[in-house]
Structures are given as C-alpha cells and as structure tokens.
Amino acid sequence: MSDIINILPDSVANQIAAGEVVDRPASAVKELLENSMDAGASQIDLILKDAGRTLIQVIDNGCGMSDSDARLCFERHATSKIHRADDLFAIRTMGFRGEALASIAAIAQVELRTRLHDAELGTAIVIEGSHIVSQQPAACPPGTSLAVKNLFYNVPARRNFLKKDSVELSHIEEVFRRITLVHCDLGFSLQHNGKLLYDLKPGSMLQRIAQLYGSYYKERFFSVEEETDLVRIKGFVGKPEHSRKTRGEQYLFVNGRYIKHPALAAAVEKAYTDLLPDRSYPSYFIALQVDPSRIDINIHPNKTEVRFVDDHALFAILRSAVKKALGQFTLATELSFDTPPEFNIGPAPSGYIPQQPSVKYNPDYNPFSSSGARGSNKGATGSEKTNLLFDSNDDSTIVPSLPFTPSHSPSLPPIPSPACLQLQGRYIATSLSSGLALIDQRRALERILFDRLSQTGSQAARQSQTLLFPVNCQFSAADADLLAELKPELQAYGFALEAVGQTTYVVTATPPDVQEADLQPFFEQVLSDYKASTLQKFADRDQSLRASLARQMAARAGTSLSQEEMQQLVADLFACPMADTTPSGRRIITIVKPEELLK
Ligand code: ADP
Ligand code: MG
C-alpha cells in the first residue's frame, strides 16, 4: 500500500483560503482599507479601475513596514496585531487573522511599496500567485501603497462570476460607506477610472454623512447621544417624515466596525413605533462603543455578525436613546405649530344644550338575507343604496371573470362597470361574477403604470408634461453618476432632466403621474431601489427600474377616487395580462366568494 496524503503547497492552500476572504473586488477593498486604518493612517486613498477588476490600489500615510515585514506580511497567519490567544478577547484593530494579504497575493498580481517613517528608503515588492517576483529598495513616501492588479487572474471561475462593473462598483461603494461613515476623523478618497467620486475630509459624523449623501441630508436627522457604563452611543437617526419604503440607510457600528444585528436594529425601529407610516423604515447611522472584552467578533471576516455579552441591557439603552432623540423632535414641532384651526371652537353660548347627534339607518336591512343573495335589496326601505357592495344589479352587467385571462385593452368591451366602493382610501370593493373583489388600490395602480411603462415606444410610455417651474434635485456624487447612467431610460419614460454641476439635476418634465413637489424623494427612492435591486442580482435592470418608477408613482398618487376613477382603475387593471399581482409579486386582488359572504 502506498501513501496518498500530500501537504498542499502554500500557494494552493492560500488560493483555497482566498475563496473565503476575497470573493469579489469589494472584499479586497475592505481588507486593504482596514489594514491602512490599523496602520494608523490619517489619509487613505482608494484608486479603482474597472470596478476593481483591473486595479485596486490603496495608498496610506500609516506606519509603513520594514523590509522584512514587507515580505512577511504575505505569509499566512502573519500578523502584527495579536501575539497570543488571550489577545483575541480584546481586539482593538480591524484585522487580526493575518490572512488577507496572503489570500489576495494568491489570486492577483500585487505590488507593495512601503516605507517606515524614520527610514530613508522603502521597499518595493511584486508578488504574483503567492510567488515573490521581485523585491528591491525603493524611494517612496512614508506609509504604504498596495496595488492589486487583475484580481482572480488565475481563478477563471471566480473572474467569470463577477457582475457588471456598475454592480461591482456599488458593492465597493457600500464597503466604502460602511468604513468611512464611522471613521470620520480620517480622510478618504475614492477614484474610479480616473474620476474622483468622493473626497472625504476629516470632520464630524454629520459632515461625513453630508459628504457621502449630499448636503441636504443634514436636515434629515436628529442626533442621538447617550453614555452609560456599558456603552457609548453616538449617531444620527432619521426624522420620521424622511422614512423610506425600503430599508436603505440603516447603519449600525460597534467599535468602528459595521455590523448587522437584527435585534439591535429592531430596538431602533421600536423607538419609532407609531411615528412612521405603514411599511416605512427609518434611516439611521449609529455608532456604539463598548468594552472589547464584552463582545465577540471572532468570526468569519466577511460576516458582519457580532455577539454581545450584555445584549438585553444594550437593546434597552439603545431604544431609549433613540426614543429620546425622537421625543425631543415631536415636542419641538408641537410647540412650533399653531393650534389646528378645526379645534378652534368658541365657547358655547350660555344656556345652550347640545343635542345628541342622530344617525339615520334602516334597522330592517340585512345584506345577507337569502332574498338579497342575487342583489335586490328588497328588505331595505330606504332609498339610499347602502348595499352597493353586494348588489350586482342585473345579470346583463358585464363583469370580467377570474381567473384573469390575458385580455388586452382593445379586446375589452366598453364596460358598464359594476359599482365600486372605496374602503379606507386603500381598497376598492367591486362585485365580480366570482364574488366580491377587494382590490388594493395602490398596487393596482402600480401594475397599470408598470405595464404602461413597459410598452416602450408607445404613446403612453412617452407621455410627458413640462413643468411650469423646473425643479432642482440634489444628489450625492455617486447617485448623480447613477442617474446619468439611467437618464436615457428615464427620458423614454417621460422625464426630462439635465445635470448642472457635479451633483445637481434640474428636472423640466415628468410623466403625468408624478407630482413635482415630490421629485427629490421620488428620485432618491428610485435610485435606492435600483441600487438595492442590482445588489440583489435582479435579472433585468430595465425591469427593476420600471417596477420602481411604477411603485413610486403609485405610492404618491392621490387616494380618494371618484366613482368614475375607480371604475376606470378597475377596467385598466383587468386589461393587464397579469392583473392579480404587482411586478414584484404582491397580491392585488382578494376575492371573497359568495359562500364566504353568507357565513
Ligand atoms: P491582519 O490585518 O489580520 O493582521 P493582513 O494579511 O491583512 O492581516 O496583514 C498582515 C500584516 O501586514 C498586518 O498585521 C500588518 O502588520 C501588515 N500590514 C498590512 N497592511 C499594512 C499597511 N497598509 N500598513 C502597514 N502595515 C500593514
Ligand atoms: Mg488585515
């Protein structure tokens, strides 16, 4: 019998390990930025080509490395950050595993130039696929520059797995935000394909938020601050009126590290109870500082989970801190508003005896009585048609029947539509042959608008109205870039917009369903949806853009509808081939069968 076990060569072992640490350019960016921060840099510049595919370079003014450290740093388990197992319980640096550089060097061509501050000369090293190609003394500024070229050049499977540049870049930007938002005392820049996207100066967290998202963001937040023995909390929570329909800007940090922690996030959202409209989410940027021995971050480098020893106490403190921040807000607005006019009821004249208001109703009316099953309201004596809902009048009424067969509008006969009733400004109830249909008004509109936008080139898709006064919208540099990318599609859908300067757009026309007062949040939400959908690898970018536009238009449409408007909406809905769900798959119509009604 012969022996069959080999020890893998380091280059192979490193490549395998690399799969865990570096799965896309963004994760290499994260590791390099963290190394620069650990090296005590005060300025860190990130340079990218082709969304990191061709080049990721990080230049810092940190401590730099000696000649031999420069070579050693590419070895696996080479770290200056921990010395013994005990150190694991008091981690104060971002990295500590000594894996990142070894992994990156296994799957890319890496050039390191580094110099200690008190050294005359630095070192330049070239390493490819874990093999050192050259090392020589070099004249370079103090600090470190690490250039990662052609990531995954020797791992075609990974390389082919990369998404479009815009997607990879949005992952990198997310990493960049997660780091720069909480390290506000450091300067950062981000340059992509020769264009400076961000140039962040050291400053306060609020200034950092404004630099990343646009200066108008400053007005949207309240500051949270709290200090207890257990935790120091500092950050900003969004004003309720700026809540979003998606969980967009929700950032929690612990000891300078971005974390995901559902329970902590829930504690923040709890503080907003009753302040937000249905299905809206607050934005927040909150940094916690806790004793490193009270948390466990010794987990996978790409994961963002963290465990706290004192979790329950922490949640309670966080929630009350956020509540306090929001409470100050509600008090302030209450004081600044006059009493609403409708409560200005003068004192009653003396001797006035208020009368009990009376309600007229027909005590005999029973919509469920068997005689009324086919709709005639025989039992009712009142002339008012209180049972509109259940009354399908006569059998000649043409009602679309379910399930919905694809019936495009031209084939649909002009509808002597059944009567509709609006419930809670949210649902339309109407009678169909299969039962009582409850239609979610907003979702119905979303489906109709989506289908309209999808008929590209059609008159409907190009409908546009010129605004009386052009509207200026402000964006972050990155959002402005994204908007430039989406401009052709937006134009096809009826928007006219032009960039003025780096971050401002002036909008001169919109489709008829868009309110001009709302344009800023409208575009913000569309961009944030679009980014979220590219992150979630949605198949078709046009489709996700259309879905988001339709959702935003529908969300902002008026809610109270006349009888004709309701009937039109129902008819338009049933003309859609997929009338029963929204583009994102949410149910639009619920049918209550006659049998169920009888119950
Ligand atoms: P870790 O960060 O977990 O220690 P890395 O592989 O990321 O592991 O880095 C290995 C070592 O290389 C670090 O511990 C540090 O000593 C050194 N190093 C890496 N990047 C820099 C840098 N930008 N400046 C100075 N030293 C660095
Ligand atoms: Mg590291």
Question: What characteristics describe this protein?
Answer:
about 600 residues; alpha+beta; Heat Shock Protein 90; Ribosomal Protein S5, domain 2; Ribosomal Protein S8, Chain: A, domain 1; 3 domains; eight-stranded mixed beta sheet; five-stranded mixed beta sheet; 16 helices; about 20% strand; binds adenosine-5'-diphosphate; binds magnesium ion
Structure in a nutshell:
The chain has 599 residues and is an alpha+beta fold. It has helices at residues 10-21, 25-38, 67-72, 100-106, 156-161, 165-180, 205-213, 262-271, 311-336, 441-454, 459-462, 477-492, 519-535, 541-556, 563-574, 594-598; strands at 43-49, 55-60, 109-115, 122-128, 131-138, 143-149, 187-192, 195-200, 221-227, 231-238, 250-254, 257-259, 284-290, 295-296, 307-308, 420-423, 427-432, 435-440, 465-474, 496-500, 504-510, 589-592.
Question: How does this model look, in words?
Answer:
With 599 residues, the chain is of the alpha+beta class. It has three domains: 10-203, 2-Layer Sandwich (Heat Shock Protein 90), CATH 3.30.565.10; 212-332, Ribosomal Protein S5, domain 2; 420-592, Ribosomal Protein S8, Chain: A, domain 1 (2-Layer Sandwich). Helix content is 32%, strand content 22%. It contains 16 helices and 22 strands. The strands form five sheets. Strands 5-4-3-6-2-1-7-8 form an eight-stranded mixed β-sheet. Strands 9-10-13-11-12 form a five-stranded mixed β-sheet, covered by helices on one side. It starts with 9 loop residues before the first helix and ends with a helix. Residues 329-349 and 370-415 have low confidence and may be disordered. The structure holds adenosine-5'-diphosphate and magnesium ion. Magnesium ion binds next to helix 2.
